[in-house]
Amino acid sequence: MKRALWMASMVFVLMSGSARADSVTRLVFEPNFGGGENFFYFNQTNGVTVQVGGGTPFEFYQSTFGYPPGSTIGGSTELFFDGGSVKFGSEVHELANNGTGSLFLTQFMLPTNGQTAFTVPVDISFSFPNTFLADTGEPFAVGDGARGTMSFVLDFDGYRPDGGFTQTPPVPPVTPEPNTLALIGTGLIGILSFAHKRLTIH
Length: 202
Description:
mainly beta, disordered N terminus, 1 helix, 12% helix
């Protein structure tokens, strides 16, 4: 699994926020190029580190052919689990999953007014409800959400000579608003309560 996916130059959406001063969250979603991961999540809170990777179907969000003006992107889709881990202090557990998860991306339409560059604010949320610690079998559902931006440029040199929107380098993530912090916080409740139990037992 590409543990450092969130550092790749082709990252399309980068969102970060902190529900607490000692919490760091990174959520990356990039176009699907036909194989491998295009989703990565990292969270570090109160001595607990969670990271997980996965992928969405090619047809949900791809970059190979571009999107003609007026295309609609976003909505809900399956999120395929591709591995992950959780670390409690110095104790590391690999994560396993016996099903698929889900991902939601704010739905939006690409412009049809001749605009050649387009940036839109989006929310992303995800859930892997069937996740567990591989070595113990204990349930460990992972889910969270954040807010960021997606940027597009109209490209006339690709597969669509009449013009198709493709990704551009990511712009800096926006500062999380109060409701975004609440979304991040509620997504971490299960992780933190489980982590507290683990850390008090060991």
